[in-house]
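User: Hey, quick favor. My workstation is busy. Could you predict this chain's structure for me?
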Amino acid sequence: MPCTGFADGSAFFKGGLKVPYDFSIVVDKFPIFLPAAIETLKITGASLVFGIIVGLIAALGRISKFKLFYYPSTFYVTVIRGTPILLQLFIVYYGLANIIRLDPFPSAVIAFGTHNGAYIAEIFRGAIKSIDIGQTEAARSLGMTRFQAMRRIILPQALKRAVPPLGNQFIIATKDSSLASTIAVRELLLKSQQLGSSTFNTMEYLIIAGIYYLIMTTVLGYFVHRLERRLAISDRAG
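Assistant: No problem, here it is.
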């Protein structure tokens, strides 16, 4: 006996049994979420590239002895880490509207990139600080400038040590991208909300979005783990 719904779509009868959801929708409608998943990956990827660049600059500023670099970097990290990401997103999209009008996608990239950058800065700073200062002194004794020692000796080692926490931050960034739905970016969560409100099958569409997020974070976690193992093997071989 086929499923039939109530007027509000909240329940179905199947074989005389009342069931609250129609999970066949999860299978049938799963492919139509692919464009929204791609949009989610675009937002995440662009914001992470932006965040890595900003984070590395802020990390170097945080360890600098020059106040001109140290104080602005510290202020940036403190403010961003101390305020909600949703507030930052609204400030970029709505708060700056009188100065510059940005479309939803670039607004999300800027807000998420700035947010991720503050956390990535602390990851890089911790990794750089973990390198024995004697290596810097040895590089300087060989005639390298401080910049050359940082670029050739310290940063390559620090980047290896930063891989595990960076992987965690990348996964967090993927999930945080769902907040872009609040400014009408057509990513996974907005797609599920729109279809759910028009068909009253909200739970089914939210489950589809959740499965996509789970797939993306699981795959990302797998590759980060593989990279960690490869770097560990190269360290032992060295």
